[in-house]
Amino acid sequence: MKIMKFGGTSVGSAARIQEVARLVQKEGRTLVVLSAMSGTTNSLVEIAGYLYNRNADGARDVIGRLEAKYLKTIRELYSTEESRAAAEAFIRQTFEGITGTTRELFGAQQEKLILAQGELLSTHMMEIYLKEQGVNVLLIPALEFMRTDSQGEPDQEYISAHLKPFLEEKADVYLTQGFICRNAHGEVDNLQRGGSDYTACLIGAAVGSEEIQIWTDIDGMHDNDPRIVEKTSAVRHLHFEEAAELAYFGAKILHPTCIQPAKFANVPVRLKNTMEPEAPGTLIDNVPEPGTIKAVAAKDNITAIKIKSSRMLLAHGFLRKVFEIFESYRTPIDMICTSEVGVSMSIDDTRYLSEIVHDLKKYGTVSVDLDMCIICVVGDMDWENLGFESRVLGAMKDIPVRMVSYGGSNYNISLLVKEEDKARALQALSRHLFA
Ligand code: ADP
Ligand code: ASP
Ligand code: MG
């Protein structure tokens, strides 16, 4: 059975919901995971923000506008009064519940409950629509099987054991909510923003699905940024490791957390475009493609930090001290390059930059470069393959390069350049690698 996940933009209006229903019915027996309609989770976050600030009027204002949007959607969505009435009852009840929280003491638990409503709404509306279309649909409440453990990590055994009984009931389409779950104490929780992809991949892994499809409203993965490079091609196939590199380096493909469960369960993931459903999309699996360079991605707002110290020469334990400083400020390091007397690192979270620089100065001379950009080239870059390094560096012939990182994995070379050189660098790489 295939898993089909549709993002918020794919269920963002009555017409989009109808299109999703059409796509789902073409698949045969399938399990569908939905996000909230686009904009909804942001509005729910805004409502929670007002309630934390004890601004009940602000909250009611956003609640009113959001409810009106839903009521308008269902007027367009359904063709029978019976469906409309059922959806309206659910919407009214949901928003009464949200309004109720404006009168309570507001805390983290109330916030989680509010954030959960978007996916509950979209799935109930879809259930009613599919029934209207004569589809035998079973809505499986995510809160009854999707669970995190005491570390906040998905509890794969629990998920599998509690999902499977639902799938023994006969249905053509199983439907469930992305994003929402319960924590180890059984309280309503979520898998963090953008978590619906994660839900789909956890389910796919739990049931050993044949394929996890992630449907979005844009054309799958490109070999370069189409906003910057004139001629890009669709990437039809990626290895999970390549997808992981691209996700970490900011390409909007799959959320990085999604890759692990699908990879381990060896379930292929396919990125599909709702606007162009017949296109094959991008397939991500464990099958390597020897010698192929797949794609280039870039991540802005990077800061490079260099520390130089003669104490590093022949010393041991120097890097540990440096890394501990970053760790103490919970700041992840993206790239690292070292020489015998110095080390350069890049970060994208600069909240503690001045504290980090202050502490690093205990160990050496520190310099900082702001407004940098990581460019990452992804593909089969096993070190025994010949020639790809020179093609990548050849492309950079006229562009100043601050750092080069290669050898950390078999799938990537990363370059750090000035943000102002990003477009030139991406264009040059496109010519050298894909022309
Ligand atoms: P949501 O995040 O609202 O649930 P989607 O996940 O379908 O909905 O996508 C939201 C937006 O993120 C899209 O409109 C699109 O602009 C952007 N996006 C999604 N996937 C990609 C991608 N592969 N490359 C670039 N942008 C993307
Ligand atoms: N609705 C949630 C969000 O906007 C989850 C998701 O769409 O993936 O973050
Ligand atoms: Mg999304």
Compile the SSE list and pairings.
Elements: E1 2-6, H1 14-26, E2 30-34, H2 40-52, H3 56-77, H4 81-100, H5 108-132, E3 137-140, H6 156-168, E4 173-177, E5 180-182, E6 188-190, H7 196-207, E7 211-216, E8 237-239, H8 240-248, H9 256-265, E9 269-273, E10 282-285, E11 293-308, H10 318-328, E12 336-338, E13 342-347, H11 353-360, E14 365-379, H12 388-395, E15 401-406, E16 412-418, H13 422-434
Parallel strand pairs: 1-2, 1-7, 2-4, 3-4, 7-9, 8-10
Antiparallel strand pairs: 5-6, 9-10, 11-13, 11-14, 12-13, 14-16, 15-16
Helix pairs in contact: 1-3, 2-3, 2-5, 3-4, 4-5, 6-7, 7-9, 8-9, 12-13
Bound molecules: adenosine-5'-diphosphate, aspartic acid and magnesium ion.
Adenosine-5'-diphosphate binds near residues 10, 35, 217, 252 and 253.
- In percent terms, what proportion of residues is strand? 15-25%
Shape: globular
Sketch the topology as an H/E string, one letter per element.
EHEHHHHEHEEEHEEHHEEEHEEHEHEEH
Alpha carbon gyration radius? 24 Å
Bound molecules: adenosine-5'-diphosphate, aspartic acid, magnesium ion
Explain what the structure shows.
- The protein is α/β, with parallel strands linked by helices and 435 residues long.
- Helices cover 41% and strands 22% of the residues.
- It is built from 13 helices and 16 strands.
- The chain has helices spanning 14-26, 40-52, 56-77, 81-100, 108-132, 156-168, 196-207, 240-248, 256-265, 318-328, 353-360, 388-395, 422-434; strands spanning 2-6, 30-34, 137-140, 173-177, 180-182, 188-190, 211-216, 237-239, 269-273, 282-285, 293-308, 336-338, 342-347, 365-379, 401-406, 412-418.
- An 8-stranded mixed beta sheet has the order 3-4-2-1-7-9-10-8, with helices on both faces.
- The protein is globular.
- The mean pLDDT is 94.
- The structure holds adenosine-5'-diphosphate, aspartic acid and magnesium ion.
- Adenosine-5'-diphosphate (ADP) is lined by residues 7-10, 35, 38, 216-218, 221, 252-253.
